[in-house]
Amino acid sequence: MSPSFCDSPALSRRGLLKFSLGASAFLATAGLGASLSGCSSSVPASGFAALRSGDLMFLRALIPVMLDGAVAVEHKSDAVEGTLKSLDYSLDHLSPEMLKLTRQLFDVLGMAVTRGPLTGIWGSWENASGDEIRHFLARWQNSSLSLLRMGHSSLVQLVMMAWYGRKESWAHCGYPGPPAV
């Protein structure tokens, strides 16, 4: 009788915890390293209160993929820019600690040394195809590492709240808007 898949020493709880701890330490170190080395500027991009230029490159690649099917192609660029403005407004009103964590997530996704291994996107975000971005999102959503699943959840929630908080998104989902007072 062959051993079951779950009895494999590589998949023990202890092994998984060690791996998760190591991965968490790596991501925290990479984010801290980017912050301390100046790789990630804390200066907002022109016209934005919280989003930085590196964040915008990543988000301008991510948001159109996340809005597929919710926005007509001819309105997608306006929808992306409106979503960025809504997201920027929301981030500007976060607590300093939550903004710091969000920026660390964006830093990890923006640095080439962490972006490639963690997302599978080895080039810049601007050159990533929609399929590559969908694969990255699925990879994080279904990851065995809770840290990556939390990162996926954070990205989806940030972008979707920014989009569905906008008036132009309401017609697509059948929401008539708030009642007139």
UniProtKB/TrEMBL annotation:
Q: Which PROSITE patterns match?
A: TAT
Question: By its UniProt entry, which InterPro entries does this protein fall under?
Answer: TAT_signal
Q: What protein name does the entry list?
A: Twin-arginine translocation pathway signal protein
> Which species is this UniProt entry from?
Pseudomonas izuensis
